[in-house]
TrEMBL record:
Reaction catalysed by this enzyme: D-ribulose 5-phosphate = D-xylulose 5-phosphate
Chain residues that bind substrate: 8, 66, 142-145, 176-178, 198-199
Pathway note: Carbohydrate degradation
Family membership noted in the UniProt record: Belongs to the ribulose-phosphate 3-epimerase family.
Keywords: Carbohydrate metabolism, Cobalt, Isomerase, Manganese, Metal-binding, Zinc
Lineage, opening ranks: Bacteria, Bacillati, Bacillota, Bacilli, Lactobacillales
Protein's UniProt name: Ribulose-phosphate 3-epimerase
Active-site residue numbers: 35, 176
GO molecular function: D-ribulose-phosphate 3-epimerase activity; metal ion binding
Cellular component GO terms, alphabetical: cytoplasm
Length: 224
């Protein structure tokens, strides 16, 4: 699988969101990562389905929705209709994660399950046959600009080993939180395929293309 770089618009300039999305699009973003927070599941609030709809009007790139909310099922239809390509749901946010994933698939979107740093991989193993992606949080969710939790590299590695053992199960491994030029190589080497990066990319809009290219080549090299 090829490496994918996914800018997280949480770190974009909210008053210039269209400018920043267009800049990241032209700079070679593979997919956009949209964090949706409800102020309950995480101690912060961010984007709603109308932002997905707005994003859809300015870019043709896939839109990944990272749902950090209680009762995510209630919003799946709305975000898919707004233009979501993949809906990522936290295993910790719903009592019936298998049903939530089936719900996403029923609307024709790709499905992903997210695991917090403290959640064991065992929790999501039964989803392997039906899931398109597993997102390993490498910070506690809620805010951009946090420091990568070093122990998560081993977790990614264990997930990659489990994936290889279950050869029939095809899912991509994604990482989110504290991904930058110092941390991406270890994630790629451990088996990650898709790399979310927020503050590192949007902190330097002029250098955005160099940063996206730089992250991509670090990841590609680490995978060889
Ligand atoms: O889901 C989240 C935070 O909860 C992320 O998607 C952040 O937006 C990543 O930002 P950086 O850690 O790369 O600054
Ligand atoms: Fe995220």
């Amino acid at each position: 699988m090829t490496v994918k770089i996914a800018p997280s618009i949480l770190s974009a300039d909210i008053m210039n969101l269209e400018r920043d999305v267009r800049a990241a699009d032209q700079a070679g973003a593979d997919v956009f990562h949209i964090d949706m927070m409800d102020g309950n599941f995480v101690p912060n609030m961010s984007f709603s389905p109308n932002v997905v709809e707005g994003m859809r009007r300015v870019t043709d790139k896939p839109l990944d929705i990272h749902m950090m909310m209680e009762n995510p099922d209630a919003y799946v239809k709305q975000v898919v209709e707004a233009g979501a390509s993949t809906v990522l749901i936290h295993a910790e946010s719903t009592q019936h994660i298998y049903r939530s994933i089936e719900l996403v698939k029923s609307y024709g979107a790709k499905s992903g399950v997210v695991v917090n740093p403290g959640t064991p991989l065992e929790t999501v193993k039964e989803l392997f046959p039906i899931i398109d992606r597993i997102l390993v949080m490498t910070v506690n969710p809620g805010f951009g600009g946090q420091k990568f939790i070093p122990g998560m590299t081993k977790k990614i590695q264990r997930l990659d080993q489990l994936r290889q053992t279950a050869a029939d199960d095809n899912f991509d491994i994604e990482v989110d939180g504290g991904v930058n030029d110092e941390t991406i190589a270890q994630c790629a080497k451990a088996g990650a395929d898709i790399f979310v990066s927020g503050s590192y990319l949007f902190d330097d809009l002029g250098g955005l293309k160099d940063r996206i290219d730089g992250l991509r080549s670090l990841a590609v090299d680490a995978k060889q």
